[in-house]
Design a protein that fits this description.
Blueprint: H1 2-10, H2 12-17, H3 23-35, H4 65-79, H5 100-105
Helix pairs in contact: 1-3
């Protein structure tokens, strides 16, 4: 996963050159690019795939909650009835009309 992140922030060439490096080194490369330190090109507004819209994962093994939730929502939308219909305005009322008899009882 760190190799994929290095490829995103530093480029494929840097990722391939550091493919056998330890996690600590890969994290340092990522941090240097995000900060623009150590002569690295600064990468701004980068976020990991699982925090984007629509979220995705770096591996196929799963376990990323935002990806699972997005897939569940997409499946619900795909199987629901016509989502373009106009809702009944009366059904959308947040607060029902006050009942005069109930109000008098107070």
């Amino acid at each position: 996963m760190l190799g994929e992140i290095v490829a995103e922030v530093a480029g494929d060439v840097v990722a391939r050159a550091n493919v056998k490096e330890k996690g600590k080194t890969l994290k340092a490369i990522i941090r240097a690019h995000l900060d623009g330190s150590e002569g690295r090109t600064k990468v701004e507004h980068w976020v990991p795939r699982w925090m984007r819209f629509a979220p995705s994962a770096y591996t196929a093994r799963g376990g990323v909650g935002t990806v699972t939730a997005a897939k569940t929502l997409a499946a619900i939308r795909a199987t629901s009835e016509d989502d373009t219909r106009v809702p009944d305005p009366e059904a959308a009322r947040v607060c029902p009309e006050p009942d005069p008899d109930r109000m008098a009882a107070r």
